[in-house]
Amino acid sequence: MPVYILLRKRWQRQVHYREFQYKAKSWNCARRVVVKMERLAGELHIQFTFIATNMRLQPRNVIRFYFQRGHMENFIKEAKNGFACHKMSSTGFESNAVKLQLAMLAYNFNNWFRRLCLPEAFRPNRMETLRTKLIKIAGKLIYSGRYWTWKLCSSCIYQNPFIQTLNNIQRLPGFG
Questions:
Q1: Percentage of the chain with pLDDT > 90?
Q2: Would you say residue 121 lies in a domain?
Q3: Staple partner for 103: which of 23, 83, 93, 120, CB 3.0–4.6 Å?
Q4: In sequence order, what are the beta bridge partners of 75?
Q5: Any idea where the Transposase DDE domain is (predicted)?
Q6: Integer Cα distance of 12 and 40 in angstroms
Q7: Does 68 lie in the same domain as 15?
Q8: Crossing angle, helix 93-116 and helix 59-83, to 10 degrees?
Q9: Are 91 and 135 found together in one domain?
């Protein structure tokens, strides 16, 4: 029985949280450092995350807070890189506000498209990746008789996800 428990724990994900005081040479006083030690299932090495903080929360909640903040930073990065929200070309407030609102509308459409139409494996991809894999591909839209047909390049490696995305779009209410 004990051998089974040891083997089972080895193949499960393990996470431990600790805290300690640390003073770097350039710091004027010691600071609280929270550490997350994580061993993924089936892995032998441990991944460490260190955060110097003045928050008084439990170590697990400090890590969760900073990870959520990092997740939000990824959304901001996606808005800047994928939708040019950081490039305001006018000196007028109103025109920049309209441009930002249009970019945010496009960002929201992208999120809806991602959740409703994309295959599961493509949902975490950034906008630049989606453009490369699903939009900027060699192909033609051909009309013959009553039907529209996509003719994709024979070497298109994302042909199946592309077709699955089109099928998901057709299943949406109002498209069928």
A1: 47
A2: no
A3: 83
A4: none
A5: 10-173
A6: 7
A7: yes
A8: 110
A9: no
108 within a domain of the structure (yes/no): yes
Tens digit of each residue's pLDDT (9 = 90 or more) over 43-89: 888 999 999 999 999 999 999 999 999 888 888 888 888 888 888 88
Q: Could you list the residue range(s) of the whole structural domain that residue 145 is in?
A: 126-171
Q: Bridge partners of 21?
A: 32
Question: What are the φ and ψ backbone dihedral angles of 44, each rounded to 5 degrees?
Answer: -100, -25
CA-CA-CA-CA torsion sign (135, 139, 142, 146): negative
The verdict on 11 and 48 lying in the same domain is: yes
- Structural domains of the chain, count: 3
Q: In this structure, are 103 and 66 located in the same domain?
A: no
Report yes or no: 39 and 46 within 8 Å, Cβ to Cβ.
Answer: yes
